[in-house]
Specification:
The complex is a heterodimer of chains A (329) and B (501).
Chain A: H1 2-8, H2 13-21, H3 28-45, H4 52-77, H5 85-101, H6 106-129, H7 135-154, H8 164-171, E1 173-174, E2 177-178, H9 179-197, H10 199-209, H11 211-216, H12 221-247, H13 258-268, H14 280-300, H15 304-328
Helix pairs in contact in A: 3-14, 4-9, 4-10, 4-12, 4-13, 4-14, 5-6, 5-7, 5-12, 6-7, 6-12, 8-12, 9-10, 10-12, 13-14, 14-15
Chain B: H1 3-6, E1 7-18, E2 21-32, E3 36-40, H2 47-54, E4 63-68, E5 71-73, H3 78-83, E6 86-89, H4 101-105, H5 120-133, H6 149-162, E7 167-171, H7 179-194, E8 198-202, H8 206-212, E9 215-220, E10 223-229, H9 235-243, E11 261-270, E12 274-282, E13 286-291, H10 297-305, E14 312-317, E15 320-322, H11 327-332, E16 335-338, H12 342-346, H13 353-358, E17 366-367, E18 370-371, H14 373-386, H15 403-415, E19 421-425, H16 433-448, E20 452-457, H17 460-466, E21 469-474, E22 477-483, H18 489-496
Parallel strand pairs in B: 3-8, 3-9, 6-7, 7-8, 13-20, 13-21, 16-19, 19-20
Antiparallel strand pairs in B: 1-2, 1-4, 4-5, 9-10, 11-12, 11-14, 14-15, 17-18, 21-22
Classes of the chains: A mainly alpha (329), B alpha/beta (501).
């Protein structure tokens, strides 16, 4: 029996070590545990971490990335990727900001921004599904195009003033929790229900696992591909309006580089770029973990470059451990 | 030269068993220098197992010896086989498509010049020389994916010749190419023969065996039936040898009465694939599609469901003309298709049993986009019990089930919907004997419920035992539709290899 076990533990010493640790995927449980450890550690090691102000700030920052990451989880489960979300965030932000600045009602501004996001998502879907351009390239192109559009529309200058009520709303807390975070939690709950209880949820997993099988089972690849890119773009442009509210201006360079933070959150949360794997709650925890490391590192006075090394390592290690678990299963 | 010196490969008394099945029971194979040796037998006779053993692909075998030029050798892996001068050309062409012919020739052993850079001059001049020697008019600088399938096959063969192998195995080299192109390959083989290379030629096509081979060895059920010169025999006697007298324990379905016509197909054609296919299918009827590799029968079956698009022709369901262009259309018309390759086409193996079983029926249990999970779980439990799918739980990933149980999950997926016409593409490939019988019982059950079945299979006992009528395909055409009364193995094999009458 012992012989058999050691046979199973093939590979180099490092991978044997991790296999012995017997992780079950970096799933929700493990992530939550790591997060708690960090919280406890930072509470003891710094005076400021466990303060209402600091935590509210941490949550507010994470909420924007977190909202987009929910949409990205759908895309990544379906074995796609969307690099254009940072640019779409800026587009949604300036569209919303311009409409508010001109004195139209706030809800109209939000709806218009979301509508613009839906259009970009649909274009992404058409390029990917109908023109058969791989998602990476299609959305890389869109990332440039949309950012350039934003620059052209705004003449590369910021948009203000925004209505005071909206700025206040975005800075508000309710029972110590920032409104932005409440919105994020709301999006997470809805998305979790969609994943678990709707056709779309099952279809996205089936397509991500095996597109041909999904097609032969009568699932419309076109419709579902359009849908996932629309969802992520709509959430990105919605997040853009919230960003504008938080910063009190519509910035044309808002969301620059967010696509990678968003993807990092999904991947740390257990999403697999091969498709067919990922959870909304995992993504939520992934986003929180990255933000906590950043926040805690700053409070501890760790060099920000060193912090980036830690976050980079976290991404690679979580995918590595995930790969080990796949071999085992 | 005395007899023994002529022998280049000798495999004697080879035994090999897999879990649950004895694939080879003492097979002998003797190949002489400069001889084209046909290796023939039905599917499952043991041809590929034997070849894989010779090429070191199976690693171990239970009993027997291999001699190369009189010396006993151990062949445990493909590298050893290559060292002994053995090479094989398989059906599927393994070339780096985007690289040039020359690069493919030298793949893995790219020559360098004195500066340590790639010696392109040498690559292309040497490749050109080899191609010229073989009278092949192909540009060595052309990327492989610009060549025709036959040219690609030729490159593969040229590459192997270039290595100066002593024995070359051709495993159905003509399966994917046209007749004219086949002639080109034969020319190459004749050239190899002149160079005293021993050649093993595997094909299902009788006329090819008689054109190119000098000697044939006939296998049946893992045993050598006969080894004889081609000049001393004819096509019909060889087919008779392949079939033999032993009718193995076939599965025979009980008689059923048939209902009205549910499916009618007129002049169905798909460019470059199949032509003018006509058929009718009745309630409770099982229609067989029989043919060999490249017969086009799978494409016909897939087109009926919408998995591939046909270019012309008409399909009628219950006497009404329907348009079937996508699987969604097929499912709407209560047709389902169970693909041959379960893992790549039939299952989302990373997902659990429940999702896979419900995958084609979510429409029936969804209201307003929301799935009724109670019904979803009920469906899963019901079919796990009905089909006796062995799984620790309904939430188990399909990946962890055995081949037979995975196949049952695919069955469950379609039984779970409203399907009336079931198209099975090679349902028992890679399934062990026990599970095979269970699958036949499921098919029988489907028929007893008044549904109809199209069974696509290249395993003859299956066609004979299960179907009421069978269409035999050869190169995209239906050669004949045989009623059950007239079933005979020889008749099927002759038609499938293009021999009429």
């Amino acid at each position: 029996m012992t012989v058999k076990n050691s046979e199973k533990l093939e590979g180099n010493k490092v991978s044997v070590f991790f296999k012995k640790l017997n992780f079950t995927t970096p799933t929700v449980g493990v992530l939550a545990l790591i997060l708690v450890v960090f919280f406890v550690f930072l509470t003891i090691a710094t005076d400021k971490f466990l303060s209402v102000n600091n935590l509210a700030n941490l949550l507010r920052q994470t909420s924007i990335v977190g909202i987009i990451a929910v949409g990205m989880t759908f895309v990544i489960i379906s074995s796609g990727i969307d690099l254009s979300v940072g640019s779409v965030l800026a587009l949604g932000g300036i569209v919303g900001a311009m409409i508010m600045r001109d004195g139209y009602p706030i809800p109209l501004a939000i709806l218009a921004a979301i509508a613009v996001g839906i259009v970009v998502g649909l274009v992404n879907g058409v390029i990917i599904n109908d023109l058969k351009v791989t998602p990476f390239i299609a959305t890389l192109g869109m990332m440039y195009i949309v950012r350039a559009l934003v620059m052209l529309i705004t003449n590369a200058s910021y948009i203000s003033p925004l209505p005071k009520s909206f700025i206040h709303f975005c800075a508000e807390t309710f029972l110590y929790i920032p409104t932005l975070t409440l919105i994020w939690v709301f999006v997470v709950i809805i998305a979790s229900l969609v994943i678990k209880y709707t056709r779309l949820g099952r279809n996205v997993f089936a397509i991500g696992c095996n597109t041909e099988c999904a097609r032969l089972s009568g699932i419309s690849i076109r419709k579902n591909t359009y849908l996932v890119y629309i969802i992520v773009s709509a959430l990105a442009s919605f997040a853009g309006v919230l960003t504008a509210g938080r910063l009190a201006t519509g910035l044309p360079m808002a969301g620059n580089g967010y696509e990678l933070q968003v993807i990092a959150a999904v991947v740390v949360g257990g999403g697999s770029l091969e498709g067919g794997e990922g959870t909304i709650v995992g993504t939520l925890l992934g986003a929180l973990l990255i933000a906590t490391i950043q926040n805690g590192g700053n409070l501890l006075g760790v060099n920000p470059h060193i912090l980036n090394i830690i976050i980079g390592a976290l991404i690679v290690i979580s995918v590595y451990i995930d790969g080990l678990n796949k071999q085992k299963r | 030269m005395d007899e023994n010196e002529k022998i280049i490969v000798k495999m004697s008394n080879i035994h090999k068993s897999f879990p649950g099945v004895k694939a080879l029971k003492g097979v002998d194979l003797v190949i002489n220098k400069g001889e084209v040796h046909g290796l023939i037998g039905e599917n499952g006779a043991g041809k590929s197992t034997l070849i894989k053993i010779l090429m070191g692909a199976h690693g171990n075998f239970d009993e027997g010896d291999i001699y190369i030029e009189g010396e006993r050798v151990e062949i445990k892996n493909p590298i050893q086989a290559e060292k002994h001068g053995l090479a094989a050309v398989y059906q599927d062409i393994n070339l780096a498509e985007k690289l040039t012919v020359g690069e493919n020739f030298f793949l893995g052993e790219i020559p360098l010049n004195k500066w340590g850079a790639v010696d392109w001059k040498r690559i292309y001049s040497e490749t050109e020389k080899v191609l010229n020697d073989l009278d092949l008019n192909i540009d060595p600088k052309s990327p492989v994916n610009r060549l025709s399938t036959a040219e690609q096959a030729m490159i593969l063969i040229a590459k192997i010749i270039h290595r100066e192998s002593k024995v070359i195995i051709f495993d159905e080299p003509t399966a994917l190419i046209t007749k004219e192109e086949t002639e080109q390959i034969f020319t190459l083989i004749r050239k190899l023969k002149e160079k005293d290379v021993g050649i093993i030629y595997i094909s299902h096509r009788m006329e090819e065996i008689f054109t190119i081979c000098d000697v044939v060895t006939v296998l049946k059920d893992g045993e050598t039936v006969n080894r004889l010169p081609v000049s001393e025999t004819d096509q019909k006697s060889i087919v008779a040898m392949m079939v033999g007298n032993s009718v193995d324990e076939l599965y025979h379905m009980s008689e059923r009465s048939l209902g009205k016509t549910v499916l009618e197909v007129k002049n169905l054609t798909r460019e470059n694939s199949f032509f003018d296919v006509n058929l009718q299918l009745r309630e409770g009827e099982a229609l067989g599609f029989y043919g060999l590799v490249g017969s086009g029968m799978e494409s016909v079956a897939k087109s009926l469901f919408g998995g591939e698009e046909y270019s012309s022709g008409e399909i009628f369901i219950n006497n009404e003309k329907v348009n079937i262009k996508t699987p969604i259309d097929g499912i709407k018309n209560n047709i389902c298709f169970l693909p041959e390759d379960r893992k790549s086409d039939g299952l989302a193996i990373k997902l659990d049993v429940t999702t896979n079983i419900n995958l084609a029926s979510y429409d029936n249990i969804t209201t307003g986009g929301i799935i009724n999970t109670t019904k979803e779980n009920k469906n899963a439990v019901e079919f796990i019990e009905k089909l006796r799918i062995k799984t620790p739980s309904a939430k188990q990933r399909v990946k962890n089930l055995s081949g037979g149980n995975q196949q049952k999950v695919v069955f469950a997926k379609w039984l779970c919907g409203n399907s009336k016409i079931f198209i099975f593409d090679e349902p028992t490939v890679g399934v062990d004997v026990g599970a095979r019988h269970e699958i036949y019982k499921i098919i029988e059950q489907i028929l007893e419920n008044g549904n109809s079945v199209i069974l696509v299979s290249s395993y003859l006992p299956e066609i004979i035992g299960l179907t009421n009528r069978a269409m035999v395909f050869y190169e995209g055409e239906c050669m004949d539709c045989i009623p059950k009364k007239e079933y005979g193995e020889e008749k099927f094999l002759n038609l499938a290899s293009g021999v009429k009458g």
